[in-house]
Amino acid sequence: MKGACDTAIVVAHGFTGSADRPAVRRAAGVFAQYAAVITFSFRGHGKSGGRSTVGDREVLDLAAAVEWARSLGYERVVTVGFSMGGSVVLRHAATYRGSARGRTEAVAAVSAPARWYYRGTAPMRRVHWLITRPAGRLVGRFGFATRIHSEDWDPVPLSPVEAVPLIAPTPLLVVHGDRDPYFPVDHPRMLAAAGPAQLWLEPGMGHAENAAGEELLGRIAGWLTAARPAA
C-alpha cells in the first residue's frame, strides 16, 4: 500500500519468523505511521516456498522486495532487518550499493550477528542444532513452519562485519539490546566499529522484533525516513 510520502520501508524478519507473525505485523504497523511498508517472508519461512539458507540466498529475496518497491514508484527505499534479517540487510546494502534498482537509501540492522557460526550462548547452540541436525530441521518444519536447507554454505557468504565497510555512504544504524540472549553486545560494537554507523544500545532490550517496543520501533522508523548520506 502506497503512503503519502515517497519512502518505503522494507522489513526483513528474523529466522523462523514470517510476514504473518504478530511481532512482524506489530512492527509494520508502527512503521506505517512514518512511511509505506513492505513485508515479505524469506524463502522457507511461513507460506513462502523453497528452503531457508539461514541468511545466504535470502539476500536475493530482499533484493526482489526492494526492486518491487521501486516498481511501485517509491523514490526512497530503506531496509530494516531483525536478527537473521539484520545480517541480510547488511549484506544486501553492501552487494547492491551501486545498483540503480536494488540499492537502498538507508539501512537499520536490529539484533544482528557480526560473525557467522557463533555458538557462545545457549540460545545460539539451540539454533545451530535446529539448522544442522536432521531432528532439528524436523522441529523447524513442524514446530516453526520453517523449512531449512540441509546443505552447508559453499562458499561461505560475506559476513555481516565484512559487509559493513562496503555500505558507505549509505547511512547505517545498528540497534541492539543489552539483554540480548542470543548475541552479546560485542556483536553490535564490532559492526559499528567496522565502518560509518550509528549505534544504539538499548537498555533492557532482548532479541529482535519480539523484544522491540513501539517507542523504539518509532525511533527506528523516524531515523530511516530522515537519514541521508553525509555530504
UniProtKB/TrEMBL annotation:
<dbReference type="InterPro" id="IPR029058">
    <property type="entry name" value="AB_hydrolase_fold"/>
</dbReference>
<dbReference type="Pfam" id="PF12697">
    <property type="entry name" value="Abhydrolase_6"/>
</dbReference>
<feature type="domain" description="AB hydrolase-1">
    <location>
        <begin position="9"/>
        <end position="208"/>
    </location>
</feature>
<dbReference type="GO" id="GO:0016787">
    <property type="term" value="F:hydrolase activity"/>
</dbReference>
<protein>
    <submittedName>
        <fullName>Alpha/beta hydrolase</fullName>
    </submittedName>
</protein>
<keyword id="KW-0378">Hydrolase</keyword>
<dbReference type="InterPro" id="IPR050471">
    <property type="entry name" value="AB_hydrolase"/>
</dbReference>
<dbReference type="InterPro" id="IPR000073">
    <property type="entry name" value="AB_hydrolase_1"/>
</dbReference>
